[in-house]
Design goal:
With about 190 residues, the protein is mostly helical. It has six helices and two strands. Strand 1 and strand 2 form a beta hairpin.
Length: about 190
């Protein structure tokens, strides 16, 4: 009895699969020759529009429109990070960039290293800026370069000749009472 039910279920599932995959037969009067152009009232929704239609923009214009459309602030920032990362990967293997980095790493003094790192950042971010696709990415690259170059500044280590050092803030010793080594405060 079980085998008969299993056979019936299997046959029905096979029939359902065959029915789902079946194709509709084409009408017997299919005309494969080119038909004369019809008026817009005669065209149906399924008929393709001619490619020379002036109303349709080019595919490249549509692609540009969708690339630049904003889908949200977080998504735009993510898209920009992805583009910057692709640019970094592309520029990192450039010979002039690698040579500038090697020169910075081989410098002997701190001052020389900071100067060579500035040159490296100019080359590195300059190449990425030229390859960037839009102005927003170029601005983000300029901001990244500015933060890297700012880290190289050390005004207290190498002050400008003739200028005085900025004053060192002094701690106010009278505001906090001293503690003895036994945990009690001593007052004067």
């Amino acid at each position: 009895m079980r085998s008969k039910i299993a056979l019936i279920v299997w046959t029905l599932s096979l029939a359902a699969a065959a029915f789902a995959l079946a194709q509709d037969a084409a009408p017997p009067t299919v005309d494969l020759k080119a038909q004369p152009e019809s008026t817009p009232a005669e065209t149906s929704d399924s008929a393709p529009l001619p490619s020379s239609s002036p109303e349709l923009p080019e595919l490249s214009r549509l692609d540009e429109a969708f690339k630049r459309s904003s889908i949200g602030k977080a998504a735009d920032e993510f898209r920009q990070r992805v583009e910057i990362r692709k640019l970094q990967n592309r520029v990192a293997t450039d010979e002039s960039v690698m040579e500038a980095r090697r020169a910075a790493d081989q410098s002997t003094t701190d001052l020389q290293k900071r100067e060579r790192l500035r040159e490296y950042y100019d080359i590195y971010y300059g190449k990425m800026r030229r390859l960037a696709s839009d102005e927003e990415t170029r601005k983000a690259l300029d901001d990244l370069k500015a933060t890297h170059v700012k880290l190289l500044e050390q005004p207290r280590v190498r002050p400008i000749p003739g200028a005085s050092l900025p004053p060192v803030p002094k701690k106010d010793k009278t505001s906090k009472p001293k503690k003895s080594r036994f945990g009690r405060t001593t007052g004067s």
